[in-house]
Write a structure and sequence with these properties.
This protein is of the alpha+beta class. The protein is built from four helices and six strands; from the N terminus they run αααββαββββ.
């Protein structure tokens, strides 16, 4: 499958030479393509620093469930993404990670009238093999929509 302009995957040979913060700074600056999932769901990287990332997303009707609100899987995906990515910013070159466990708490529903939302991930702890982080999904007024925690496994790539 061909990459669409601006979206793709950094080749693993190149990714393993970059520490996580350099990779995410490159994504933010457009030096590396945005992952295809961000196009599919319509979210984007807004801010990055060591141990913290911020994504933006605007809820849309196409993401509704049968009850007329944005499917909870969208919030879970946003939280899984920011919680994993903030961990990635702390990893040395040659390291990767994968989610082992995720916990999401839903506080308020999203609709296409909610307006832009922000998903923020912050590292709790990064060890040699296991890392944990937390995430918050808020609306433009700062009201909490969902929050979560994750545990990730760190491994060589």
């Amino acid at each position: 499958m061909a990459a669409e302009a601006g979206f793709g995957v950094v080749p693993i040979e190149q990714a393993r030479t970059l520490d996580g913060l350099d990779l995410f700074k490159g994504l933010l600056e457009g030096r590396y393509p945005a992952p295809p999932i961000s196009r599919t769901l319509g979210f984007n990287l807004l801010e990055v620093e060591a141990g913290r990332v911020l994504f933006g997303y605007t809820p849309v009707f196409d993401h509704y469930n049968p009850l007329g609100t944005v499917h909870g899987g969208i919030a879970a995906t946003l939280l899984d993404s920011v919680m994993g990515c903030c961990i990635h910013t702390m990893l040395k070159a040659g390291s990767g990670y994968t989610t082992v466990e995720i916990k999401v708490n839903y506080v308020r529903a999203m609709t296409d009238g909610t307006g832009p939302v922000r998903a923020e991930g912050k590292v709790i702890n990064v060890g040699s093999r296991i890392a944990t982080s937390e995430g918050r999904l808020t609306d433009a007024a700062g009201k909490l929509l969902a929050h979560g925690t994750t545990t990730c496994l760190i491994f060589p790539i």
